[in-house]
Amino acid sequence: MEVTVDIAVPADDVWPVLADIEHWPDWLPTVTAAKWSGDGPTEVGRKARLTQPRLGTATWTVTDYRQGRSFAWSRSSPGVTTHATHAITSTDSGCRVTLGMTHVGPLAPLTRLVTSTLTRKYVGTEAASLKRRCEQD
């Protein structure tokens, strides 16, 4: 599942907002707490704890990181691993952000069945909130 949003702000100005997960709760209603584990740069293997309404707290591990362009992370629970992607591409009028979420594993079909409506709502809210946050400055 993917959601794409065009933002009338250059990618270089959107990236710092998207990549600064510890400040997501300041502008993103689908995240109430976010904290990186330990100090250091964001890179593959770095972990973060996110708390979300109706979903609780989960630890996400960065699986791909391309400074200024994209990052992906995943979280695992028994029978299912959830992957989330965050990508920015420049456009003539600003940038395009694509957010994605997939579930894999033996319980993935059940997870999709139970959470698909909430997942679509949250990812859509995240895209719209990022657009609003970046275009208000």
Account of the protein in words:
The protein is α+β, with helices and mostly antiparallel strands. The chain has a single domain, classed as Alpha-D-Glucose-1,6-Bisphosphate, Chain A, domain 4 (2-Layer Sandwich). It has three helices and seven strands. It has helices at residues 11-19, 24-27, 108-136, and strands at residues 2-7, 33-36, 47-52, 56-66, 70-77, 80-91, 94-104. The protein has a seven-stranded antiparallel sheet with strand order 1-7-6-5-4-3-2, covered by helices on one side. β5 (70-77) and β6 form a beta hairpin.
Number of domains: 1
User: Helices and strands: which structural class?
Assistant: alpha+beta
How many helix segments? Answer: 3
CATH homology superfamily: START domain
- The level of helicity is 25-40%
Biggest sheet strand order reads 1-7-6-5-4-3-2
CATH topology: Alpha-D-Glucose-1,6-Bisphosphate, Chain A, domain 4
Radius of gyration over C-alpha positions, nearest whole angstrom: 15 Å
Q: What percentage of the residues does DSSP assign to strands (E)?
A: 35-45%
The residue-averaged pLDDT reads: 96
CATH architecture designation: 2-Layer Sandwich
Number of strands: 7
What is the H-and-E element order?
A: EHHEEEEEEH
Uncertain runs: none
CATH class group:
Alpha Beta
Give the N-to-C terminal Cα separation. Answer: 29 Å
- Major sheet size, sense and barrel closure: 7 strands, antiparallel
Characterize the overall form.
Answer: globular
